[in-house]
Structure formats: structure tokens, C-alpha cells
Amino acid sequence: ADEGELRYIHATDDEIRQNIQNHINEIDNRGTSPGIPRSEYLNENTTGYIMFDIESPRNLGGIINYSDEEITWFVEGLIRRIQIFKEFCPKAKVGVWRFGDVDFRLVEEIFQPRLEKQLFAGKVSYNGQTLHDAVDYIGGGFYPYFGPGDPNGVHQKYLDGVRVDFIKRVKEAFVESFGSKKPLIPILSFR
Is 113 helix (H, G, I), strand (E, B) or coil? Predict the structure, then answer.
């Protein structure tokens, strides 16, 4: 494991808690409320949807390239961070970027292996809670990553409904594997 991975794995609950507190107390300069302290909308009264978009030291978008061991330590860290975030925003509904979203290129040969990795990730447990149990919803990206005329025909696949079909298949596999239905909240725009 490299230095960033070790920091992620070995961060104490107090360090994670402090990082979340620092983030909440900062002024929002990029989101939907620029110039406003995040604590105005991230607090014990928050009831909206929050998307954890952790890109480092791993992310669920690259899950097909990770060993079971790598998925396990990364997901354990995700669950820890969700549990601690819920101390600050207990009513918020939390999802994790790319959990339940298998392939933006829409390649059938990649679909099943990525889905199997997603199902494995959903079963990883930390502090008595699996990732599937820790999230309140599944967020599937329904927007195209590529424009018309892309060399792999991905844009046309979006128009033909392949993306929707993939997300529906993931949702069905999650229901079959985990036995419960989490709401699917579509992500309709990259921003």
C-alpha cells in the first residue's frame, strides 16, 4: 500500500470526524450555495440527499481493477466515513458515487464482472454494517460521458436505452443479492 492508502486505512475515527467537521465548517465555493458556510445546510436538520464522491485512494468506478482485498479495505473506510458523517447529519440520505453504477462505456463484456465486484463491495462489512446497509439510496448516472460521434458509439447506446437497461439490471441484481430495495436516484447531469 502507498502512503495515501495507508493514511486512508489507518485514519482514526477522531481524525475522520475532524476532517468531516472541517469540511462542514468551510465556506462553499463550488457547490450550489457559493459563499455560504456548509454548516448552513449540512447539520442535524439536513434531510436531503448527500453523495459521497471519494476518488482517492480508490473509487468505485475503477472497481473492476481491484482485488477483493483492495475492495475490502476501501469499502470498510467508506462505511466508517458514512457512519461518522451520520453523527453530524443523522437524517441525511447518503449514497456513494458509482455504487450501483457499473459501466459508463456500456460494454456488455464488462458488465457482469463489474456487477460481481459491486455485489462483493455491497457485502463488505464494518462495525456491523455492510456497504449496502450503510447507504440510503443507489445513485445511477444517466448522463452521457461522450458526445455524438464518439468512436465507440457510446453516445448512441445512451440514446438507444442501453444505459437505462444496465442500471435496471444492476437494481434487479441488488434486490436479488441483498433482499431489500433501495431507492434508485438517477444522476441526470455531470454537474
Answer: helix
Residue 61 main-chain phi, psi, to 5 deg: -65, -30
Does residue 190 have a pLDDT over 70?
Answer: no
**Res 75: pLDDT:** 97
Task: Return the closest-CA partner of residue 49 out of 104, 96, 83, 81.
Answer: 96
Write the burial class of residue 131 (CB in 10 Å: 0-12 exposed, 13-18 middle, 19+ buried): buried
Averaged over 152-168, what is the pLDDT?
A: 87
In the chain, how long is the greatest CA-to-CA distance? 49
CA separation for the pair 84, 91 (Å, rounded): 13
| Angle (CA) 161 165 170, round 5° | 150
Burial class (CB in 10 A: 0-12, 13-18, 19+), 41: middle
CA-closest candidate to residue 155, choices 104, 98, 97: 104
At 162, list the grid cell.
442501453
The model carries a pTM of 0.91
Beta pairing partners, 94: 50
